[in-house]
Amino acid sequence: MFQKVLIANRGEIALRVLRACKELGIATVAVYSTADRSAMHVRMADESVCIGPNAAKDSYLNVPSILAACEITGADAVHPGYGFLSENARFARILTEHKITFIGPSSHHIEIMGDKITAKKTAVELGIPVVPGSDGEVTTPAEAQAVAKTIGYPVIVKATAGGGGRGMKVARNDEEMAIAISTARTEAKAAFGNDSVYIEKYLQKPRHIEIQVMGDGQGNAVHLGTRDCSLQRRHQKVWEEASAPTVPAEQREKIGEICAVAMRKLKYSGAGTIEFLYENGEFYFIEMNTRLQVEHPVTERITGIDIVYEQIRVASGEKLSLKQKDVTFTGHAIEVRINAEDPQTFAPSPGKINFYHPAGGVGVRVDSAVYGGYTIPPYYDSLIGKLIVYGRTREECLMRLRRAIDEFVVDGIKTTLPLFQRLIKEPDILAGNYDIHWLEKYLAKK
Ligand code: ADP
Questions:
Q1: Is 0.90 topped by the overall pTM?
Q2: CATH architecture of the domain covering 4-103
């Protein structure tokens, strides 16, 4: 097992990893930018190192600085959290070359899944169902129109190097396609430095369903069930549930098993998420995230498994402690993302928190790194906390979520809590009757 883990992240996820390390008896090193000098992760770690100025590119993305922090403190492993360097194959490789363990999959697996065309090809080889589309990259309108003829409009043009919901264009006919191809290529080049695009059938009313997987790199892998993350704004998730409501249990089991088998074949190591669109009872692979996800706590709640603990264990070379038959699913969990944003306009709302009172009580977990008197810096992601609620049934979970949202007080800045106060009363939400477009349509109406 590791002696000392450096956590190359900030905010709630840095705290989440710190907690797992402490429970495993591992010493912790926090890294921080000058803007984060008084952040909670710095206060809670055994040691801390300043790695640069405010801008993430100069601090949390600054590889030489993070390597130096490992050197100074003698850390033998790095946990990247999510975002920042968590899916950076080069970073994983450099650490390995310096005999420091990257707590995550191999750089090879990060690379395969980071390129969407290669990821899709790999998925096909592994027997995972994918969205019908082009066989790899498409460069000219004529080529694109020929693909659209076989799969039918509407189609979506996606950037091979895309991420964060960017670099996608929908086309409904040949004329739109001609424009979509050239604009998508130009935009992809500007955003990702790579103009490669491909085409998929555009699904009209899908749900976003994902499977949590966990492997040990030695051919053992399990799935930890489904999550429904269909409630999205600008392709960003705002509300997540486990298990996925509306997907029948036997279908959840079947897709989970397909993913577990695929991860065994791949000899995948660490935590990962295989994302699907789900429409008319069919699953279609869209991508795999080779890291811990923001929404992992809902899975932890219904399985009783500490995903970060397992990540650390397998990274240290131990075998997966779980067998598929040991993984059981009990009750229902929902997570809502509390962002420092105006709940109407979604404009960022950084600043000082005067008073902070998180929800508590039975079945409530709050993962956050803020406190009363803390000033949220304007430089990073607006996520300030996650409220995770459990119930024996979805109905109980929803009632508990309603009372937990009412209890939660973050005074001094604007947050998305009022949005959830509204959503929790919506009949479609209560019935679990929503697809990936529901939230955008709802927000446009109000
Ligand atoms: P990113 O890596 O940018 O998050 P994804 O491939 O995961 O890109 O897609 C993000 C979101 O875009 C999905 O959750 C879904 O809302 C939408 N999307 C992607 N592919 C399709 C498709 N073929 N049809 C309809 N919507 C899609």
A1: yes
A2: 3-Layer(aba) Sandwich (3.40)
